[in-house]
Write a structure and sequence with these properties.
Blueprint: E1 2-5, E2 8-11, H1 20-27, E3 46-49, E4 52-55, E5 67-69, H2 71-74, H3 82-89, H4 99-112, H5 118-125, H6 135-153
Parallel strand pairs: 1-5
Antiparallel strand pairs: 1-2, 3-4, 3-5
Helix pairs in contact: 3-6, 4-6
Length: 154
C-alpha cells in the first residue's frame, strides 16, 4: 500500500483495516498525531485528508486515497503555519495533548472560511475537546491566524 504523507510517498505493508493513526505513529514515526478516545469524539487524532479534517483513529488506512497532512507537515520550524504561530503567541497550550488536533481543525477552518466569526469557530471546533479549557485562547488564536493570513495575502 502506498500513502502520500506530508508530501512524501511511503510504501507500507500493513493491514487495510489498521487505523490511520497507528500507521502514522507506529509505522511512519510521526507521533504528533495523538490518540485520545479512539472513537472519533475528542479530535486529538485529527489530520487532513486532501485538506479535509478527518479523525485518524477511526479511518482505516485501506480507505485512504488522497494526500495526508499531519501536524508535522503543516509548517516547519523555520516557517510555521499561521495557526501554529498564533498558538504560540496566544499561549494556547496548557497540557498540550489535544493541541495538534486543535491546530489541524483550525487550519482546515481557515482554509474554507478565512474570516470566521466566534460562532463559526465554535461550530468548527466543537468536536475538539480540551480538558484544560483553553477555548477562549483557542478562539483568539484562530482570529489572530485569520488576520495574519489576510495580511499575507494582501
Amino acid at each position: 500500500m502506498k500513502l502520500n504523507v506530508n508530501g512524501h510517498t511511503h510504501e507500507l505493508d500493513v493491514e487495510p483495516d489498521m487505523p490511520l493513526l497507528w500507521v502514522l505513529r507506529d509505522e511512519l514515526n510521526l507521533p504528533g498525531t495523538k490518540y485520545g478516545c479512539g472513537m472519533a469524539l475528542c479530535g486529538a487524532c485529527t489530520v487532513h485528508l486532501d485538506g479535509v479534517p478527518v479523525r485518524s483513529c477511526v479511518t482505516p488506512v485501506g480507505s485512504v486515497t488522497g494526500a495526508i497532512t499531519t501536524i508535522e507537515g503543516l509548517g516547519t520550524p523555520a516557517s510555521l503555519h499561521a495557526v501554529q504561530a498564533a498558538w504560540i503567541a496566544h499561549q494556547v497550550a496548557q497540557c498540550g495533548y489535544c493541541q495538534s488536533g486543535q491546530i489541524m481543525s483550525a487550519a482546515a477552518l481557515l482554509k474554507t472560511n478565512p474570516n470566521p466569526s466566534d460562532a463559526d469557530i465554535d461550530t468548527a471546533m466543537s468536536g475538539n475537546l480540551c480538558r484544560c479549557g483553553a477555548y477562549p485562547r483557542i478562539r483568539a488564536a484562530i482570529h489572530a491566524a485569520a488576520a495574519s493570513l489576510k495580511q499575507g495575502a494582501a
